[in-house]
Sequence to fold (81 residues):
Amino acid sequence: MSKNNEKLMDIISRVLDIEVETVTDETSPENTASWDSYNALLMVSELEEVFNVQFSMEEVYAVTCVKNIRSALVRHDVSFE
Fold:
């Protein structure tokens, strides 16, 4: 697992208060009770700070699962290799 992927999983796990081992590409508000609007904003803030990126409002609304978060970060030149 890449260092950036570890950072991503750690942020999601910490913000959503779930075990890091349970975070998958399919983790989303539909299957994670703690992924509410407040925690989604916290997650965006943490991701922007840790990865030194700035998401547009369109990107924030488009993020519906971990896979989408990773894709958004890749569009901001964050590598997951």
Summary: The helical segments are 3-16, 37-51, 57-62, 66-75.
